[in-house]
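Quick question about two entries, pasted in order.
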Amino acid sequence: AAAAQARRRAHSQAAAPAAAAGGSGGGQTLVEKIAQRHAVDLAEGEVVRSGDFIGIRPHHVMTHDNTGAVIPKFSSIGARRLADARQPVFALDHDIQNTSAKNQAKYAGIEAFAKTHGSKFYPAGRGIAHQVLVEEGHAWPGTMVVGSDSHSNMYGGVGCLGTPVVRTDAAAIWATTQTWWQAPPVAKVELCGELAPGVVGKDVIVALCALFANDEVLNHAVEFVGDGASALPVEDRLAIANMTTEWGALAGLFAVDDVTLRWYDARAERRASPIVNADSVAKLRQDVAADPRRWAADPDAVYAKTLWLDLASLTPHVAGPDSVKIAEPLGELEPRRVRINKAYLLSCVNSRQKDLREAADVVRGVQKARGVPAKVAPGVAWYVAAASSQVLADAKDSGDWQVLVDAGATPLPPGCGPCIGLGVGLLEDGEVGISATNRNYKGRMGSKAAHTYLSSPAVVAASALQGYICSPETAIAGTTRSAPPSRPVRYGSKVHAAKPTTAVSTDSAAATASAISGFPQSLSGRLIFLPADNLNTDGIYPGKYTYQDDISRDQMRAIVMENYDPEFARLVNPEDVVVAGANFGTGSSREQAATAILAAGVRLVVCASASETFKRNAVNNGLLVLESPVLVAWLRAAFPDAPLTTVTGLHANADLVGGKISLADAKGSMVFETGLPKVGKAAQEIIVAGGLENW
């Protein structure tokens, strides 16, 4: 551990001057400032910059149902107690509809572990972990909180730097209070203008995902600024920060301002807790007033790029089908009368009190206009779940919950449920769903032969009542509106600096000329090409298996890539070199996406680019993931009509230490060669050990 810390510090010290040189003043972004406060063992005067590898001691680390998989990792490290019992937070939320004896025993084991060690535990039914951490004050403004879940970005809505880690990292934090982190490049997103009535935070992030759909913020942290950002209520900020995950970002952060403070004032008055109360909120106000610079980026902060969006030009948007990178204005989609079978108002992105109220108001509007009770359209099933038990109680007190239930919505317990493909109400073959959730990948919410659209809660409610995707105005009027004149969304890029070269899991800056004992100088095998971009972790390892902790490696091998291409498991051989498209491993932070590839006998994946979370999972488990967009471009040209899994007939030889890969045809003649990131000593040690836990 000491050696690893020394390496990280040496790399950080070497990288900082280069990072600072990228800008004129050398100020820090808000992400860098918060990371600096949670960094450990920095040299005197050392300033955290994007690109630095640092040790971090997060304020809290959250695990949910996957706590059951982290516990054995923690034990196998050799730890017998938590280094700081106040740091972990356990919240059960994913598979809470599963009342089987096996799952109940798992939940009881997690609760017993928390009780034994004296850590905070929230049982099934309390709510979705991310919402609970915000409500209870664990995700506190100005702190850094990590979670073993990809939507930990959501904490940025209250000015808390939230970012995902993987299960092995969680175990390491339990045992030592810290782990490693590479400060990402930071993109500034300027939101200007004011949203029109009926346009909400969900529309903002859905539009951003589609308007900037070429990996502009992939593996970046995003800071939202501008008068438009300042005008957004906290609930909309939480929704936007939450779905920066789907946008490809590692964090989405709003600065703490008067809107944030007023939200905490109201919460302390209505729902006081040991952390969120009148005294703590008053102290927060004092801290912000006493040192405003601490709570905002420096004027001369160095950003990788700046994007902007005019909120006043935005109309309600719908994403899909089956991708967050495809979206269109609701007014253009509605005339096509896309019929739906199921509607969903749930998840950590859009099932807070504001969301439930907006949906209930649509029902009230329809009832008032028609003079009869509003009901779900024939042939449509509508499912609703509050983000937490507190949200549910508030919605019941306001009457909003009963309005939704009386309209025919089926209530589900506060938790993830259909959003993760668990429990009742999943999409079946050929069905179409409209959902206020954050992901619509094929197979995410049920059948791979179904289609899913994403929208705001009000549009979900309207569509459920009409039976096709439509606006609240159409539902109230009872007839489809003609498409309004097209009004273009105003957006653009003020600055597009060259994308920083991210030091990947290979630690290429510290690469040596030789391999350490036990590390292969090279890896070679058949080249299997997966041409798709954005091959997400649901495609690699389906969500329905994620919380089955007893799946064997042989079973993993049989189901790897099941949601992407069921033929992959049959076609792949041990020692094959897999080459994939851009943004490989995006989506959920599930660790099994890496271990399932290893179970298939694959030791090396080369891709145009990879999700940072997936890369972290991969190297932490002993799988090498290297990036070579040049190689992928060559393969696309060589195999223009490549099927989902292409056995190319080529033999790949990757020189891991020298930093190159060569391809030979069936006769042994070399047909292509290009560079690869070099695998340095630090990464070699982790791979030789079989992963970070063993190391």
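Here is the second entry:
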Amino acid sequence: AYERRFPTCPLIPMFVASDTVNEYKSEDEAVHVIERRCKLDIDAPRLLKKIAGVDYVYFVQKNSLNRRERTLHIEAYNETFSNRVIINEHCSYTVHPDNEDWTCFEQSASLDIKSFFGFESTVEKIAMKQYTSNIKKGKEIIEYYLKQLEEEGITFVPRWTPPVACKSESSTSHPRRPVSPAINIPESATKEGLSNKEILTTSSSPSEPTAGTPDDKLDADYIKRYLGDLTPMQESCLIRLRQWLQETHKGKIPKDEHILRFLRARDFNIDKAREILCQSLTWRKQHQVDYILDTWNPPQVLQDYYAGGWHHHDKDGRPLYVLRLGQMDTKGLVRALGEEALLRHVLSINEEGLRRCEENTKVFGRPISSWTCLVDLEGLNMRHLWRPGVKALLRIIEVVEANYPETLGRLLILRAPRVFPVLWTLVSPFIDDNTRKKFLIYAGNDYQGPGGLLDYIDKEIIPDFLGGECMCEVPEGGLVPKSLYRTAEELENEDIKLWTETIYQSASVFKGAPHEVLIQIVDASSVITWDFDVCKGDIVFNIFHSKRAPQPPKKDSLGAHSITSPGGNNVQLIDKVWQLGCDYSMVESPLICKEGESVQGSHVTRWPGFYILQWKFHSMPACATTNLPRVDDVLASLQVSSHKCKVMYYTEVIGSEDFRGSMTSLESSHSGFSQLSAATTSSSQSHSSSMISR
């Protein structure tokens, strides 16, 4: 199917033509390598093409098909402007190790722009845009040719087997690894989760005792009881993601039900699910969300005027949450509490929802992973469209969407007034498409008719304010007295108090603008400790010492970059005129930290003075092959600077008189925490003052 896109492909308009420049076939026809020169019509501004002096761009593509190993490797690089721009791409089709009927596809690429007539930024955006577009169309194109083959009656290609003549020759002059005879794989063995290798072993040596049951299958009863119906592929994704977390994540591992939510939110694309799950776990750690049910005590204002609460369950056994939004004074709550208090309260509601789902799973004997929300809009008016209130609502939706995917089973919106379409227009773009499909909206008293509330909730538990017989203990809301309003300064201080219960701080790191933290040491042999997560990008971590204090940082340290950093601060302390080795010295070897890694460590100080912890943007070597940025990041890079990293950190100094540990107990360690982190490597580098181990 892949070969059918040559010599040209109508589904790829920019692919104009291709010529074969080199071809090789092995004698046994197992290996077929073909090299082509491809002509591309890049969608670039006419002015740029005129300046560059070209109408078309040429790439060289080498396809290596190995029928013996059942692999197809594709390599491509640019021929045009190769002295100015270096593009390398690698794709591979392989057989899934656990199921030989599945094909795995992997793709990576690197882009290095050395110079391009002063249009480097424009070329980067064009390249990213074209590449993103091609990635999205890749699956569509291969499926098109697969369908074409099916229409021609080709639905199966027999497995390659070595020719007889080739066997005899190889046995005399060119010894090769013996080929196992083809055997029929029993369907029962496949269902039991045996790999190809295991099936061959058990078939050829029936007398040998088999190894224990491989740990790559979930118990069928467990799946049915707690997870629901899963296809073999979905089950495999869950096992692989859970195993990856167990190997790389040092914190609390989420339960299978929660991991499954993130997989479902990304249609079981394991890389995308792993990305958002890792970001969510970092967020939970930063804000100590795991402890929110034990530590969060809602202020009295919320208890009196927040018109929402849990109310039994729906017909499917899902916990039911009732929100009387029309009766709630959102403006008054924001003015009295601030955004952060409302956000934390909503987080506690979601955490309670997760707990209730677990309880209902046990009660009803079937998996219940989401809840139903009933929103009554009677009383909704223009007051609810107060801008800061809508802003707070959008922020809450954004946080919930990112960290509690697939937890909303159904949303019933009742008694929607005329002003509702205005609110919906503001809010709907921030809601995931899958979530929007779960919305049912009723105007007026339509919820009482056919297809209404009775289809989803038992008559006995319909709340009294909706005409039912069940007393609902949800507060009625009402206007928040203005005497409870707080000034902007009070709210700001309260927000800081609420969210800095976490000991971590956030910082942004830009290319050419590292983030630096100053620590003054009075007594030698004190211990500086650190704990940080790399939330975005790759950084280099350094520790410096200076006998003199650096100048206070300028307030507008990012002014030269014209970049604001709402998600964290950026402070630069080391003066540009300072010279390393003269004005300050490096006391630890630089530590390269990849996106998603969690790093903890410490340093025993030798001298008093000023120590500077630095997080610096890490630039890859010019010709290094790097992973292709995530599609979302590529799109974002067209609008914002791509040279930006984020870290979340905590530092502390332990005085020498308080320190009772040994030198070897002070280690700096990594834990891989994203799809960009490679398998944890093991190396160590010891110093007389501290130890760093990866």
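Reply: The longest strand covers residues 15-25. Residues 502-550+569-619+641-668 form a domain with the Jelly Rolls fold (CATH 2.60.120.680). Hope that helps.
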